[in-house]
Design brief:
The complex is a heterotrimer. Chain A is an alpha/beta fold. Chain A has helices at 25-39, 65-69, 89-102, 122-126, 135-138, 141-151, 156-169, 184-189, 217-225, 254-267, 272-275, 288-295, 304-309, 326-329, 333-349; strands at residues 6-13, 49-53, 80-83, 108-116, 192-194, 197-198, 207-216, 231-240, 278-280, 362-369, 374-381. In chain A, a hairpin with a 2-residue loop joins strand 5 (192-194) and strand 6 (197-198). The relative contact order of chain A is 0.19. In chain B, the strands form 6 sheets. In chain B, strands 5, 6, 7, 8, 9 and 10 form a 6-stranded mixed sheet that branches. A 5-stranded antiparallel sheet of chain B has the order 19-18-17-20-21, with no helix packed on it. Classes of the chains: A alpha/beta, B mainly beta, C alpha/beta.
């Protein structure tokens, strides 16, 4: 990379639940923030700037919450920034925070993303209050149908992803859904939501927050010297494409392919399947896992489902995907993207606890938003030059 | 002449208060006002954190007021529907006795001449209190608190939640292209707009080409066929929320219009149950009769203008494996 | 910490016509603004390496409202792109940071909103403390009035100097006559408050050599900073704006004089307070454009201040300051310093 190196030195998140009735807005974000600061052995006074990401304000009915949360985030006297790129927002939050440090303008930046969506109703907000909303998954059903047709994937692939992610979540103390008896049969028997996606193949609606501390090379080296390995940001990119026009392919979106190409080129990744040890991909509906495996070059076109089928993407497989349980297990919408980026960072820091992928040196975190239009991705490594 | 569409976003939000705001609201039901200690200061309203530093504050509550002194104020001659009173009042910063910081609230003084910096005010409590800032209806001149209506006492349980109803009405313009397409649908015409630069055709009243970022005016209009093929679809099992209109699974189909590359997305289907829809099915457009009421052009899909939806026309299905990819 | 590049410049910008009420949708406004900004530079949308949009769902009245604004960018092939739920001036900050990375050359930032769409008195309470202030319908006019009282009490402004600001900004009116008008929220009169304006703005940034290839006199960003304060106005001293002071210092205001200062002062007393905090003497031309008191397109108003400051440099000036703000009683403030290069 030609820009100054930056790294993640602290990660924190809340216990994600369908309703965090025990906390206020401020309480929710501070829970994640203090955990991240503690992880970084820092206090609020070490933070030079705060970047907040959140999905539509209609979810909670608080407009521009960065205003209310300025003092809660210890941002008084500091720059406070708010990004919003639909579902990919959590990822964009991390990227913009990294950009703050890479620019040389700020040394240590706190990225925070949250959603307290139980205060409203996500389905309502998605449809801006109108009836016959497609709901969270309605827009993706046609994309999934097209993928299945193109790839010839058997119907059980979606169920397998759902089971995998929920089993992984049992090893993640922060995950929302803990379905001890998750099984293919249970998933198959759950109600159909957006054919072919069933209830247990869909993400929950969660209240939660995530916070990440990003600092410069000196700060990262100090953490390493202190026995707390950082996650070096090898590359990052955000790409968008328009919602709808003849020629758009939502199953292999050009914006996703370009975003991956940007990241791989900057990170020196020429063979993603071999060089990436684990991936946190934004999978709110099970079939998006094979779709993203292919769009991000981790599988050949039409072959992504085989990696699910043969166990490659399981925690014990050769390319674990969503070891954290992913969006399928916890989905505070604004935070979900940042959780992917944070979990990827934790993997290469060796800080993923029970869901640690052994020896993970390079990981990617990816988030998407709207109708497979907005993509944010970063690659993180346990060293700055992991391929040398 | 541009038409406008009004829409109201309204939702009953339910907020959890956390330990500090919760304590404050519970105390309000007891006709007590709490501040929180922050160093040497007493913050009113109480915060979970020191506003200057973000440090967590220990829960040292201090009862303040109930009376206080007006530090500053401004007269509200025409209250909005969200304001605490429906007749003219003063919004004031009121330093309750014992507090370091002032509380914003309404003062019901009758006329602006009756309000002044330094005047003493006391709360007018609502008889039935829920644990919200509105449990104080407003402040009134003097030292003595009042209660309006029958006093039903403090909350039986600590208050942990608060309702918030926001209702905002918006007037958005209907872009000319959308309006023309809706008007054309009244004449049972499906209007498309062809981009002069790339040649793509856009239907459904979309008045610009997102690839070339240019507006498409009436000179770009083309008439589209009323026959097509279902290429893909979503079968939505409805979730209940305020404003939901559906109770049964419903279909939104993607229709590829004959001899074009135009897809009409998220369309309603007629006389086609969800379990019988197929990729490749041949369909015709169904129009509303002039007498039928129809919705404006669809943000949510479904019926659109006078285009009620699509109905199977009995022709043999098209067997083309690429059809399912025709989504956009 | 590496040194920030001062070789990033504003090279052009455009705004749609500023009207009380437009028939155009926000996407149409943006399309016009972007085309208007890039065309005079001989650029097409294909030349844009990075876009960052500023807009607000609650102003527009729809969740994810910015998604349809993508149509105005021409994001095909897919663009490096981002969005902030803030005034375009902060979109500018994000783009400026991004350009520091050195791998791209041209960015476009926008600010857009249709203020006429909804009633600000009903919308803006929703950005206030959700427990103590929003439920009272605590509106921006009320907070502005309370700050005006504090500023007047501190001797920084009085009703006459406020009326003078209004007359100068709008280029019309007579101070004596204005002072006979009724208050609409004492001490504010109608002339002290901003108009409702619909409009959008787009601005082009370029780095180094590319900037110099495209225009004769790029307006180089030599200082750029923003800071926030505690949210609840009742916890703050309203006769001051510390975040403005800190941001200005961090942006290097004190190192050299500015000829022009474009301040996003939607209320007349705000201009006087900001002048005072920034230490701007009479030799500085404040808001020669008329500022937000003349035209106030929400979410673009701050970005336009940068545009007007850039105009001063384009037209031969040496150094200009632009200010943007967000939140009640100037809670958050942004300072951007633009300079010529000899």
């Amino acid at each position: 990379m030609s820009t100054p190196p930056v790294a993640v030195v602290g990660v924190g998140q809340t216990h994600h639940k369908s309703r965090r009735l025990d906390v206020s807005f401020g309480g929710l974000v501070r829970e994640a923030v203090f955990r991240a600061l503690e992880d970084a052995r820092m206090t609020m006074s070490d933070i030079d700037a705060v970047v907040l990401g959140k999905a539509p304000d209609l979810f909670e009915g608080v407009m521009k919450p960065e205003l209310y949360l300025s003092d809660a985030l210890g941002a008084v006297g500091k720059p406070m920034f708010r990004v919003h790129t639909a579902g990919s927002v959590g990822g964009t939050t991390a990227i913009v925070a990294a950009s703050h440090v890479q620019s040389g303008k700020h040394r240590t930046v706190l990225a925070v993303a949250f959603e307290k969506q139980s205060e409203g109703n996500a389905q309502f907000a998605l449809g801006s209050g109108r009836g016959a909303s497609l709901g969270a998954g309605g827009a993706f059903a046609p994309f999934i149908r097209a993928y299945i047709q193109r790839s010839g994937a058997p119907e059980h692939i979606g169920w397998k992803v759902a089971v995998k992610d929920r089993l992984n979540a049992l090893k993640n103390p922060y995950a929302h859904l803990k379905i001890e008896d998750i099984s293919i049969e249970k998933v198959k028997a759950s109600p159909m939501m957006w054919e072919p996606t069933r209830f247990l193949e869909s993400c929950p609606s969660s209240d939660g927050a995530c916070a990440v501390v990003i600092t410069d090379e000196a700060g990262a080296n100090a953490a390493a010297a202190d026995g707390r390995p950082p996650a070096w940001v090898l590359a990052a990119s955000s790409r968008s494409e328009p919602p709808s026009f003849p020629g758009r392919d939502p199953v292999r979106p050009a914006a996703a392919i370009q975003c991956a190409a940007d990241v791989y080129a900057a990170a020196g990744i020429t063979d993603p399947r071999r060089q990436i040890d684990t991936a946190e991909l934004y999978v709110p509906f099970s079939w998006l896992e094979p779709i993203w495996l292919e769009a991000f070059g981790l599988a050949e076109e039409g072959e992504g489902w085989k990696m699910v089928d043969d166990g490659t993407t399981e925690l014990g497989g050769s390319l674990p995907v969503n070891a954290s349980g992913g969006v399928l297990s916890s989905n505070p919408i604004g935070a979900s993207g940042l959780l992917r980026f944070a979990e990827a960072a934790n993997q290469v820091r060796g800080a993923a606890g029970e869901h640690q992928v052994d020896g993970a040196k390079v990981a990617i975190g990816m988030a998407y938003g709207a109708n497979n239009q907005y993509f944010s991705t970063w690659a993180v490594g346990s060293s700055l030059h992991p391929f040398e | 002449m541009t038409r406008f569409v009004e829409s109201t976003i309204t939702f009953p939000y339910k907020r959890s208060l956390g330990p500090v705001v919760g304590a404050f609201m519970t105390a309000l039901t007891e006709k007590q006002i709490l501040g929180i200690r922050c160093g040497d200061d007493v913050l009113v309203p109480p915060m979970e954190w020191d506003p200057a530093t973000g440090a967590e504050l220990p829960h040292e509550f201090v009862e303040v007021g109930p009376a206080g002194t007006v530090e500053s104020w401004t007269w509200v001659a025409s209250p909005s529907e969200q304001h605490p009173l429906d007749h003219p009042f003063a919004f004031a910063l009121i330093r309750l006795d014992g507090a370091t910081t002032p509380l914003l609230h309404a003062v019901d003084a009758g006329t602006p001449q009756a309000v002044s910096d330094g005047m003493r005010v006391a709360p007018r409590w609502r008889g039935t209190r829920e644990g919200r800032i509105g449990d104080i209806i407003c402040f009134v001149p003097g030292e003595v608190s009042e209660t309006e209506g029958e006093d039903t006492g403090g909350a039986a349980e600590p208050v942990t939640m608060m309702d918030y109803n926001a209702s905002i009405t918006y007037r958005n313009p209907i872009p000319e292209a959308a309006d023309r397409a809706t008007e054309a649908s009244r004449d049972h015409r499906l209007l498309g707009l062809r981009c002069p630069t790339c040649g793509r055709v856009y239907a459904g009243g979309r008045g610009l080409c997102p690839v070339d970022a240019i507006e498409l005016g009436p000179e770009c209009e083309v008439d589209l066929p009323h026959k097509g093929t279902i290429t893909n679809f979503a079968i939505v099992t409805p979730v209940q929320y305020p404003g939901q209109t559906e109770t049964e699974p419903f279909v939104r189909a993607f229709i590829l219009l004959d001899d074009t590359d135009v897809i009409i997305p998220y369309s309603a289907v007629i006389e086609l149950p969800a379990d019988e829809i197929r990729v490749g099915q041949r369909v015709d457009a169904v129009w509303a009769s002039p007498a039928e009421e129809t919705e404006e052009g669809g943000g949510m899909g479904g019926s659109w203008g006078s285009l009620l939806g699509w109905i199977p026309n009995g022709e043999p299905d098209l067997a083309d494996p690429d059809l399912v990819n025709r989504i956009f | 910490m590496s040194t920030l590049s001062t070789d990033i410049a504003v090279i052009g910008w455009a705004q749609t016509s500023m009207v009380r009420h437009t028939d155009k949708s926000e996407t149409q406004l943006l399309l016009d603004a972007i085309t208007g900004a890039i065309t005079p530079l001989g650029l097409t949308r294909a030349d844009i390496d990075f876009t960052c949009l500023g807009s607000c769902d609650y102003i527009t009245g729809q969740a994810f409202s910015f998604v349809s604004n993508l149509d105005a960018i021409g994001a095909w092939p897919p663009k490096r792109d981002s969005h902030v739920e803030m005034d375009g001036a902060w979109a500018l900050y994000e783009a400026w940071l991004r350009l520091q990375e050195g791998d791209i050359e041209i960015a476009v930032v926008t600010g857009s909103g249709r203020s006429s769409t909804g009633d600000p008195a009903l919308i803006y309470p929703m950005e206030m403390d959700p427990y103590f202030l929003a439920p009272l319908g605590a509106d921006p006019l009320t907070f502005a009035a309370l700050q005006a009282r504090a500023v007047i009490a501190a001797g920084i402004a009085d009703e006459r100097s406020m009326a003078e600001v209004a007359v100068r900004s709008r280029g019309t009116g007579d101070v004596e006559t204005l002072l006979t008008e009724d208050f609409i929220r004492e001490p504010l009169r109608r002339h002290d408050v901003p108009p409702i304006t619909d409009g959008a703005a787009a601005m082009v940034l370029a780095t180094g050599e590319r900037a110099r290839q495209l225009v004769e006199r790029p307006a180089y960003i030599t200082g750029f900073d923003h800071r926030t304060e505690c949210h609840n106005p009742s916890f703050r001293a309203l006769d001051d704006s510390p975040s403005t002071r800190i941001a200005a210092e961090a942006a290097g205001l004190g190192t050299a004089p500015v000829e022009v200062a474009e301040l996003q002062a939607a209320f007349s007393h705000e201009e006087l307070l900001l002048r005072h905090v920034l230490g701007l003497g009479d030799e500085v031309a404040v808001n020669p454009s008329g500022g937000a008191l003349r035209e106030n397109p929400i979410m673009a108003s701050g970005l336009i201040r940068v545009g007007r400051a850039a105009d001063h440099i384009f037209g031969g000036g040496s150094r200009a300051l632009a200010h943007a703000t967000s939140g009640p009683c100037l809670q958050q403030n942004l300072i951007c310093i633009l300079e010529e290069r000899s």
